[in-house]
Amino acid sequence: MTSQQTEKRPFALVVGRDTRARARVGQALLDRGYSIVMCSGPPGCALAHEDSCALVQRADVAVMLSPWQEPHGGFFLRECATFAHKAVFAWAPPFAIPDGSVIVDSMDPTRIASAVDAAVRTRVA
């Protein structure tokens, strides 16, 4: 086995309502060697039901692609970012973000992937 085969791929959770946006950002992350999981958020999200989320807890980074307009959307995203090891926002949220989070303020998949790379490299174990 080579060292490349035994090396752990970083795991990114891509969160957003827009399926095409998730796919574009997910592909940019796959191209950079990430393992990814896509999440469309509420109403099926465990965090929206005050449960823990195994996906966000295991991810090296959670990528928030767009704000939710529902009454509790901000709560969901804040919780997701709080429980993530690192969080990258493609937009500037109207709430305080956890320390170490990154705001890209762009939906460009390459810019988001670059921000994810930077966030993962600075992860404190």
In short:
The chain has 125 residues and is an alpha/beta fold. 37% of the residues lie in helices and 15% in strands.
Keywords:
125 residues; Rossmann fold; 15% strand; alpha/beta; five-stranded parallel β-sheet
Topology at a glance:
Elements: H1 3-6, E1 11-15, H2 19-31, E2 35-39, H3 54-58, E3 61-64, H4 73-83, E4 87-89, E5 102-103, H5 109-121
Parallel strand pairs: 1-2, 1-3, 3-4, 4-5
Helix pairs in contact: 2-5
Number of helices in the DSSP assignment: 5
Name the beta content range: 15-25%
Main sheet properties? 5 strands, parallel
Structural class of the secondary elements? alpha/beta
Shape: globular
Q: Would you list the SSEs in sequence order as H and E?
A: HEHEHEHEEH
Number of strands: 5
| Biggest sheet strand line-up | 2-1-3-4-5
Provide mean pLDDT, rounded. 85
CATH class category label: Alpha Beta
Rg: 14 Å
Spans of 5+ residues with little confidence (pLDDT < 50)?
none
CATH topological fold name: Rossmann fold
Helix content: 25-40%
Specify the CATH homologous superfamily. Answer: Response regulator
Number of domains: 1
| Distance linking N and C termini | 26 Å
